[in-house]
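Researcher: Next entry in the queue.
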Amino acid sequence: MLRKISGTGVALVTPFKSDLSIDFEALTSLVNHCVDGNIDFLVVMGTTGESVTLSLEEKNAALDCVKQANNNRLPIVLGIGGNNTDYIIQSFSSYNLDGVDAILSVSPAYNKPTQEGIYQHFKAISKISPLPIILYNVPGRTSSNMTAETTLRLAHDFDNIIAVKEASGDMQQIMEIISKKPIDFKVLSGDDAITLPIILMGGNGVISVLGQALPKDFSSMVKYGLEGDLKASKELHYKILSFVEPLFVEGNPAGIKTLLNLKGICKEEVRLPLVKSSAKLKSIFEQKLNKLV
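Model: Structure for this entry, 293 residues:
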């Protein structure tokens, strides 16, 4: 039975040591920090996890570490996606999917497929996936928007496509999906800044970057929003909103790793072609954390 994939999910970073090897101790601390902060589910090997700079061996090692640290407390979602459909299909056999609850699969980047191409891509993955699939639309990275029509077509045609992570920033598109989706299909925000507006329009939660640094505040905002408590959710929304813009101004996950470093969870190290955040950005986060009550 599928465990709950709604509420506040977080796209975990992959912490690195100074030599850029994976810091499994820090990753374990991060998982516990999220569980203790009332996060609802964990996402491994997304964009924030720097998956494109990790070898298959490293991806599996990080996944195993998260499973062990999580100890079955929260659902786990694994990122498996790309722009080579056949390669993605073959890659399912490269992971130990025991203990994984769902797959997060991003719409193809660089190729810039048509909407029919996007549909056929996810249809092919749906046919072979042993786990439920969360679609991921992030045109800012893929240069190709998955329209509401395509998302809804996939949602209605394939029972194992259970949700979409919507990071288009297009509220009209997102509201169209919410208003026409199958009843059990989930719409998850992929944008921290508009998570609450999406929830208040009928969305089901978020896959967040900021949530792993401020888990209690972020998860409470989502919880109150889902419960219809506008006053409490809005108060938390504006409390944490000031972190969102600086979080991404020098790239993701450089910003979130700096914030996590200031909270004593992991180093700031990222792998090229990404670089660490500037001293200026670190100072901005220090000031914001000092003001956070």
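Model: The two ends are 39 Å apart (CA to CA).
Researcher: Noted, moving on.
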